[in-house]
Target: PadR family transcriptional regulator
Amino acid sequence: MARSNKTKYPILGILSQEDLSGYEIKKRIEERLSFYWNESFGQIYPTLKELRREGLLGSERVAQEGKPDKTVYKITEKGMAILREWLEEPVETERLRSELLLKLSFGNHTSTETIKRHVDDFRESLKKKLKLMEIFERNLREVLEDHPDHPYQLVTVLFGKKTYQAWIDWCEEALALLGNS
Amino acid sequence: MARSNKTKYPILGILSQEDLSGYEIKKRIEERLSFYWNESFGQIYPTLKELRREGLLGSERVAQEGKPDKTVYKITEKGMAILREWLEEPVETERLRSELLLKLSFGNHTSTETIKRHVDDFRESLKKKLKLMEIFERNLREVLEDHPDHPYQLVTVLFGKKTYQAWIDWCEEALALLGNS
DNA sequence: GAGCCCATGTAATCAGTTACATGATTAC
DNA sequence: GTAATCATGTAACTGATTACATGGGCTC
Model:
């Protein structure tokens, strides 16, 4: 895509919290970041090797019982420094990209029903996502009662909530506007 | 990226409204779609040739006074059929990707001030975008009074408004949460 | 003559997904 | 035995941006 390769940052970030293998890093990203960030194995494994070569990670072969051996990576002081450096830098904003809006904007070439169906499908998918966010929120608020220091995870979940709720509201608005046209 | 190539659809869509050259198509996309869709020349010109080869577009060389000649493309009946077909198909939802949220989620490794600065920068950029949307909205509502059929453009602008407003609200919420931590 | 807009295109580069390959272990 | 999970990796493909090249005409 010729946008800069950011794969190393989620990896460094995840490894700043615990030592993990590539396979486990993938799982953590899916569990914790997947609603706003994703990485595939095809990116993770080569990046891990590179980061190790650059001295941002150390690695250790670990034997497991009942499972294959794994290579566990550990972030180095140099790796932490790079992570902190990146955290300081201005955020590169990525552009929105929405096939739904693209279809909507050429909606005059199909039936209103078709367009309304697309909007409705979108709304249903959002409702599910919103429910997930609400579950995350409840869990995080419980944790936060004991550890009021790290509200960061909660803040990202609130972003999801706000976004999905706004989009649901927009769906209602859009359906109303298209209904009597 | 291995996500399917959609470049042809904005091109067909734009050409369903007026006959244009590649250069003009780029301008139209920037003017009308850029807040949720973008295409570069590197995609547009090769795609135009391909669409012409497939018979979805016709082309004509047009001389201009005071400007270089241009190749104006015109959508064919076959092209319109492909556009309508795509409009019927279910929307492929693309994933959110946010470097801001990524930085936030590892925010415990830097100062609260740094994170708040990122959020604040984001909020300022959103305010500008929101103002733009409001201008678009006013213009479109004026047009809509005379032509109450095609509310589609307006609906996409309302999406922008809703999204940006929600994100601004989230910024306030986030700053408050981070403020007393 | 410098710099900008119009106009079209290609090449280089890279991001990122998907498919494929391999192999261990566990559970049915 | 076969499917599922754990674990690691490579190769193929392609989407998409950016840079580069070219050239006409306009404005200062």
Q: What stands out?
A: The domain at 7-88 of chain B is CATH 1.10.10.10 (Arc Repressor Mutant, subunit A).
